[in-house]
Amino acid sequence: MTRAAVGLLLLAFLAAPSALAGEPAPPAQEAGGGAPEFRSSDDPSAPASKKKKSKKKASAGPALDLGAGLGYEYNPFHLTPSALRDLRDDRAADRASGRFDDMDSPDDFVLRAGAAGGYRFGKKSGSRLDVELEPAVRLFLENFRLSYFEAQARVSQELSKSSELRLSLGYVPERFRRNSFADGIDEDGNGSISDSERRYRPLRDTYGGGRLAFRWDYGEKPANTVEIFAGAVARAYREPFEERREWVLEAGIEATFRGTETSGTRLSYRYARGWNPPHREVLLVDEDRYDLDFNGDGDIVDQDVRSVQRVNRTTNDHEALVRFFWETDPKRSVGGLLGFGLRVREYASGEPYDRDHRGRWDFRLGGRFALEFALGRGASLVLGPWGEIQLRWREGKTLDKTKVDYASGGVLGLVRVGF
Ligand SMILES: [Ca+2]
Ligand SMILES: [Ca+2]
Ligand SMILES: [Ca+2]
After folding, report:
1. What spacing in Å lies between the alpha carbon of 301 and ligand 1's midpoint?
2. What is the pLDDT of residues 130-157, one digit of tens each?
3. Residues near ligand 3 ion, CB 5 Å cutoff
4. What is the residue-averaged pLDDT of the chain?
5. pTM of the entire structure?
6. Which residues contact 204 (CB under 8 A, 6 or more apart)?
7. Of 283, 284, 286, nearest to 303 (Cα)?
8. pLDDT for the residue numbered 45
9. Where are the domains of the chain?
10. Ligand nearest the Cα atom of residue 300
11. How far is the CA of 287 from the centre of ligand 3 (A)?
């Protein structure tokens, strides 16, 4: 059996925008926040050159993988159900505010393409060194502005026949998430900011980071595997949202248990903290929520009053994944993967008027299913659906304690060829 086969299967999972059931850690990708997604080498759009090297007779030298696929994606902006309705309705107020500029469709088709070039140094098992570089691009056909480029690099050093140290680096130069509320102008002077008085601006970020992982295989055939990892990510936002910048530190563990040579279960846990320095933002506050006269007109009944207040977007994430896989081998040309994930995100803000973050918890559930068909000559086809839903919970004297934050999903078909 080949580790490459596992990788190929994982492709289908990792292809989704927020790789919930993907590699040990791909942090969640919220449109507009959270930690950047860090996919592994197994991403379809960036096929790793693992196919050759993981075969038993792996040899030194170059390797190249190419991958291309087409996916359908529902709700790529991760909009709430009511915002999705507004997007479809194309309201005049939203056209005035720029809320959905360049956000043309609630669903989309996505083209993915990538290459992975690698080189293996060293012939002796137990001391090999692999270097890989993976550029990839995703093109959204309806919402073209969501398209982005990314690059990953990886260096893996075998420490012995059963252990390996791996450094992964990733960089995304710029990515549009969606439009975000930037300011409000009380044009009619009534003390409140109406929908059409709001101003939205594109939320765009740039991020890069690295992860160091140590893997250890133990037991007789089939060998089980334990991996521990730690990493850091820096994320910057383009104007006018520079203040949302964050630093993420993460650590986690993944264990793979093999019932047979070609099937098993993989469990992983990851913790990540994303620091955002507290800063001031324009908020829309309801006076009756705080019994305060924010607009100074002598009453405490106004809604959506413009107010500049301190905000803190710092988060603590706990993420657990379970995946079941069976791989293709020379006797069987179909493999598969079934995975489920849960991420609990706690917002750490203690700022009194930071209603979007203070006392908020997000619970995200996701699932993936994929089948891999070996096509021969180093090629394979991966097909499968995925879906996720995030629930938002807020403490305090609010009526809307639990809400669906967003639901998204899709299906992906992808072909990979290794040379
Ligand atoms: Ca107004
Ligand atoms: Ca007032
Ligand atoms: Ca008033």
Report:
1. 14
2. 999 999 999 999 999 999 999 999 999 9
3. 191, 297, 299, 302
4. 86
5. 0.85
6. 174, 175, 176, 177, 237, 238, 241
7. 286
8. 30
9. 3-363+393-418
10. 2
11. 9
